[in-house]
Structure formats: structure tokens, C-alpha cells
Design a protein that fits this description.
heterodimer; A: mainly alpha; 10 helices; globular; B: alpha/beta; Rossmann fold; Alpha-Beta Plaits; 2 domains; 4-stranded antiparallel β-sheet; 15 strands; about 35% helix; binds adenosine-5'-diphosphate; binds magnesium ion
């Protein structure tokens, strides 16, 4: 088992996910429907209600919130599809291969991140169409940010997935873990005026850091964002890196143990 | 001299979580390199459980397994390199083409570097794929989505895929289930040919006894235990005797004569006028000469593996209530292709067929 072998396998597993996505037209169309609804309809409503007291432009604020949330969630839900693979016995064929389990799950995270990034491009173009303006340098700065957000979503998906027993169970539990984060993570509305309990819940919501990293990437700095950005890029990135590694380590260990201990 | 076993299973036990009994309950056997070994047993006997453990996808509760010198507990990666498997349930990615499925598999086994398209893959891969497509009879269809394939094609593709890394042992879990007879024969021609050329060890589970007839040895599982192990012929004859079915117009006189001459006989079945007398080929002539009562019916009956299998399983099922403790498995001759060793659990009741 050489490093080159593991690396090639990682790419092959990741590429399979991307191919599957690109061939699935209904999923491609679905890519745009939800973010569009969020940004145009919900965004308008939330924005009107929350506008008072903030200096930044609300549609832009919400656009980047949804942009980050969408990639993060897409990557996370993509990982959950491993459960489906397992139920269809396809993953059996991958798991009997002489590979490190980290390679297999890492490949899966990379693959779902590529899918999420592809969806991100679509949403980005949509943003330009509805009037979000940015300099080319700002757009370039968003690329590494988007990659980090996708990988982080995958890591979060892995630890969730490892603790789920069935696709149905996952579909039932996932919304409860996800929807509150839309609010707590500040996708549509600022989170800086929360009471202590909500503020605490917000701080333990992984999505908060992904969304804030995205806005930080766009606005450039906390100071220059007129209150739209909560924390510095290094801080958000550090939180994501540390918790992401923990998610992957625990997720892989739990998944592998459960996979074999039936 | 006999080669060291390529598969060694010793006291294998598996109890699923929350299960009331062991799905595999103290199973031990060896398989020789190049042997064609077949695991038989009714649904739920523990065949898939055993194969899953042997191929590292399921953790055992107890026991030791070594495959091609790799200990399952300490060197799962080694076991994975040595084994190929065709799962009981379909395991192809239906969204990909056959070629993409094979390519993914080949890269996962470290045979080639990853490339995004067929054209950019190394020439060695493309040549190998061409050969495989030829063998499977897919031709250019190998580039079509698996979704469009028939069940027989998919099965064959799975087998081809599991062989691409040239495993020392190929595990096949009910490979013919759901195939029509023509596809089944086709698949088996390929498997037996492959076995002849590559000397791969075949570990098969099946419902089709005709497939097991070709095996060097069969192992019959029932409720997680081995109830018979040996060559198909040895298992058959050790369980069921050949017998001669006799009938006479004067049924009573025939029975009296047989008893009077100390020839053991049995009623054929409830209400049947016929009697059974155990006899091997060599005894048949002597038996007929010894009988004076005019016979109206003579038929020699050779039990098939299927008869033996059904008798075994039925007998084991009858045993359900009995507390038999650990199965009293007597291992006969060690793993030897074409050997005559047979082992049958001795704690069970006597065979239902005619005894001598
Ligand atoms: N995942 C599982 N959890 C609990 N029990 C199981 C599981 N898989 C199989 N079993 C049980 O284990 C026994 C053996 O099953 P299996 O190995 O699939 O049999 P076979 O392949 O011979 O038909 C059966 O009683 C079955 O119900
Ligand atoms: Mg089975």
C-alpha cells in the first residue's frame, strides 16, 4: 500500500461523486431552486424586518450567507449518501479494497466538496445576475474560502452520518440539526444581538463559522464590514480546522466500527 | 506433500447485536490453494455472514481466520489484497458505465494511477479492459451505463471486476441467483476456465446443488454449524445408501422371505407396497439371486447430492429442540482437492434413509 496508491484511490472516489452529480440533471436543476427561493423571497422578508440599525446592504449580506450555507449543506448531505450506498451495497465494494479507511472517507469528502463547489459556481453566477457587485480580487479571494467551507461541510456530514443507522433516520434527524443553524449561524439575519443562551448556541453552530468566513472573504475585514462580519479570517479558519479534524477523526472511527460491528 | 491451507478458519463465531443466537456458531475448516470449496445451506444458515467475516466487512465475535497467510485480526489489509469478492447483492454503481466501474475498482486496488477518462488511462489498462470485455462478451457495450445491462451481464461484470487484481481467493456469494439457465451456464464456463488458467481458489456459496457437484469439497451449514464436510460424493454416500426398491404381487411373502433370510429391509414409504433394501452396485446381483418370491418391480436408486443435502438439512431441523451442545464435528481428511475425506456431525440422529 503506497502513498501514491492511496492518493490515486482518493481521487478516483472523489471523481466518481462528481461524475454522478454531473450526470444527474434533476439534481443540477435543484441546485438553483432552493438558494434562489432563499435569497429572493426569504431574503427580502428577513431583510425588511431586520434592516433597522445596520449599515450594510442586506441583500448582499444574505446572498453570502446563503452562498456559504448552500455549499456547506450540500457537502454535508452528500456525505450522508454513503448510508444510501451502504444500503445499496455499493460501498461494500469500496470497503473491501486494500485502502486506509481515511482514504475512502477522505475521498468521499473531497468528492462531495467538488459537487458542492460546482453548485457554488451556479449560485455565484446567480448572485451576479441579481446584482451582487464585487471586484475581481474579491471574487478570487472567495475561492479558497469556498473550498474550506465545502470540506468543512463534508467533515460535519461525516460525523453525523457515522452516527446514523439508516437513510430514513438520517432524513428525519438531519433537518433538526440543520434548520436551527440557519438561524443560529446567521445565514439570513445578524447574530450579534442574541440573548446569552442563543449566543451560546450560535457559537457552537458549525455553520456560523462557515458563513462568517465567507462574509469575511467578501468584505475583507471585520472593521470594513460595518458589522456584517463577526470574527477575523484566521479565527474562523482555526475553529473550522480544529473542529473539522475532530469531526473526521471521530466520524471515521465510529463509521468503521459500526460498519463492521453489526 | 500437501500445500498449506490458503484459508484457515478456526472456531469462528458471530452473534449479531441484539440477536438471540449465534448466526455462525463455532465453524472450523481449511481450504487448500486452488481448491473449489462450496458452502451450502438453507437461507439463514450463516453463509453470507461467514463470507462477510472472511472478506473483512464484518467483525467476528470469536475465532481465528487466516487467508493467504494474513491474519484477519491483525492484517485486514493483507486479507483484502488477497481476496476478491462478488457479493450476494448487486454492488455495481448503476450511474457509471461498466468501464468506469472496472476502472474505479482497478484504481482502488492500486493497479493503475487515476485518470479522468478512459482515453487518458495507461495503455496497459486499456488492453486489459479490452480483453475483459471480450471474455464477458460485452464488446463496445462496456462503455454503456450499467443501468442498461441485463442481470446476467451485471453478474458477469461483477465477477470480472472482482478478478481484475488477480486475487488468490475469489469469494462468490450465490453468484447465480436470479440468472436464467443460459446466463448461469455462461458464467460457470467462465469461472471454471478462469480457475483452470489462473489457479484461483474458489469459495462459493450456492443454492444450486448442481453447482456444488463440481466443487472439490462441500461444507453444509445449518443454523450456523457445519453438519457435513467432504467431497460431494463422500457426503452423499456417507449419508444415504444406494438402495434397491423391490415390489412383489405377494407383498407379505416378500417381506417374510427377506426377514427369514436376514436381509435388512425397510418400508419404502407409508402405504407403499414396495420395500427398500440397502445395496451397493456390487450387491445388487447377489440380492436378486437370493430372492425367490416373484418380483414385479426392481429399481436401484442412487441418491443425488440433492437428496443427501435435503436429508441433512431436514435431519438438522428435526434436531432443533434437542440440546446438543457444541456440534460434534469430526473433521475428516484435511483440505485436499479430490480427497475422499468426509466429516459429518456425529451428535445428530441417524439418517432417515434406509440403514443396513
Ligand atoms: N445484520 C444482521 N443483523 C442481525 N441478524 C442478521 C444480520 N444479517 C443476518 N442475520 C441473521 O443471521 C443468520 C444468518 O444469515 P446469513 O448469513 O445471511 O445466512 P445465509 O447467507 O446462509 O442465507 C440469519 O438468521 C439472519 O437472520
Ligand atoms: Mg446469504
Amino acid at each position: 500500500m503506497s502513498l501514491a496508491h492511496e492518493f490515486n484511490a482518493l481521487l478516483a472516489i472523489a471523481y466518481r461523486d462528481l461524475l454522478k452529480f454531473l450526470r444527474d440533471r434533476s439534481r443540477m436543476v435543484g441546485t438553483l431552486v432552493f438558494p434562489a427561493v432563499f435569497i429572493l423571497i426569504l431574503g427580502g422578508a428577513f431583510g425588511a424586518a431586520a434592516q433597522s440599525g445596520y449599515q450594510f446592504e442586506f441583500q448582499t449580506f444574505i446572498f453570502f450567507g446563503v452562498f456559504a450555507q448552500n455549499m456547506w449543506q450540500s457537502s454535508a448531505t452528500g456525505i450522508i449518501s454513503l448510508i444510501e450506498d451502504r444500503e445499496n451495497d455499493f460501498s461494500q465494494a469500496i470497503f473491501v479494497a486494500p485502502l486506509s479507511r481515511y482514504t475512502i472517507l477522505g475521498g468521499k469528502i473531497l468528492g462531495e466538496s467538488l459537487v458542492a463547489l460546482t453548485q457554488g459556481i451556479v449560485i455565484f453566477v446567480f448572485g451576479l445576475v441579481i446584482g451582487v457587485r464585487m471586484a475581481p480580487s474579491q471574487a478570487l479571494a472567495l475561492i479558497p474560502v469556498a473550498i474550506a467551507i465545502c470540506l468543512y461541510g463534508g467533515a460535519f456530514g461525516l460525523i453525523l452520518m457515522a452516527n446514523m443507522n439508516s437513510q430514513r433516520g438520517a432524513q428525519q434527524v438531519f433537518p433538526f440539526l440543520l434548520l436551527p443553524q440557519f438561524f443560529l449561524g446567521g445565514v439570513f439575519t445578524p447574530v450579534d444581538k442574541f440573548n446569552p443562551v442563543l449566543a451560546f448556541l450560535s457559537r457552537i453552530s458549525p455553520l456560523r463559522y462557515a458563513v462568517d468566513l465567507m462574509r469575511g472573504g467578501y468584505y475583507g475585514s471585520v472593521e470594513g464590514s460595518a458589522g456584517a462580519v463577526l470574527a477575523s479570517q484566521p479565527f474562523n479558519l482555526a475553529v473550522m480546522a480544529v473542529s473539522g479534524v475532530v469531526f473526521v477523526m471521530i466520524g471515521t472511527a465510529v463509521f468503521v466500527r459500526k460498519e463492521r460491528t453489526r | 506433500m500437501q500445500a498449506a491451507p490458503i484459508i484457515k478458519v478456526d472456531g469462528l463465531v458471530k452473534r449479531y447485536q441484539k440477536a438471540e443466537r449465534n448466526a455462525v456458531d463455532g465453524v472450523s475448516f481449511d481450504v487448500a490453494p486452488g481448491e473449489f470449496f462450496s458452502l451450502l445451506g438453507p437461507n439463514g444458515a450463516g453463509k453470507t455472514t461467514t463470507i462477510s467475516i472472511l472478506t473483512t466487512t464484518l467483525a467476528p465475535t470469536g475465532g481465528r481466520v487466516t487467508i493467504d497467510g494474513h491474519d484477519l485480526a491483525t492484517d485486514a489489509a493483507g486479507v483484502r489484497r488477497s481476496a476478491g469478492i462478488t457479493f450476494q447483492t448487486p454492488s455495481l454503481d448503476r450511474n457509471l458505465s461498466a468501464e468506469e466501474n472496472v476502472r474505479l475498482h482497478a484504481i482502488l486496488y492500486g493497479l493503475y494511477p487515476w485518470r479522468p477518462t478512459y482515453r487518458t488511462m495507461p495503455a496497459a489498462y486499456r488492453q486489459r479492459l479490452g480483453e475483459l470485455a471480450e471474455v464477458v462478451g460485452l464488446g463496445a457495450d462496456i462503455f454503456k451505463p450499467v443501468r442498461t445491462y441485463s442481470g446476467g451481464m451485471r453478474r458477469k461484470l461483477e465477477v470480472v471486476r472482482s478478478l481484475i487484481h488477480q486475487p488468490r481467493v475469489l469469494f462468490l456469494d450465490e453468484p447465480s441467483t436470479g440468472l436464467d439457465p443460459a446466463s448461469r451456464r455462461d458464467l460457470w464456463n467462465y469461472l471454471l476456465e478462469m480457475r483452470r488458467t489462473a489457479d484461483t481458489t474458489l469459495f462459493l456459496t450456492t443454492h444450486y446443488l448442481a453447482e456444488a457437484e463440481d466443487a472439490d469439497r462441500i461444507c453444509v451449514l445449518s443454523r450456523g454449524r457445519i453438519i457435513a464436510l467432504g467431497t460431494p460424493a463422500a457426503v452423499t454416500t456417507s449419508l444415504l445408501d444406494r438402495y434397491v426398491l423391490l415390489g412383489a404381487t405377494d407383498a407379505r411373502a416378500l417381506r417374510n422371505e427377506l426377514s427369514g433370510k436376514n436381509i435388512a429391509w425397510q418400508e419404502h414409504a407409508g402405504g407403499s407396497p414396495y420395500v427398500r433394501v440397502a445395496a451397493n452396485e456390487s450387491d445388487v446381483h447377489a440380492l436378486l439371486k437370493a430372492i425367490d418370491t416373484p418380483l414385479t418391480m426392481v429399481r436401484t436408486v442412487l441418491p443425488t447430492l440433492e437428496d443427501a443435502y435435503l436429508a441433512l438439512v431436514e435431519r438438522d431441523e428435526l434436531d432443533l429442540g434437542a440440546t446438543s451442545g457444541p456440534a460434534g464435528i469430526v473433521l475428516g481428511a484435511p483440505a485436499a482437492p479430490n480427497g475422499d475425506g468426509v466429516a459429518v456431525a456425529k451428535t445428530r440422529a441417524q439418517p432417515v434413509a434406509a440403514g443396513q
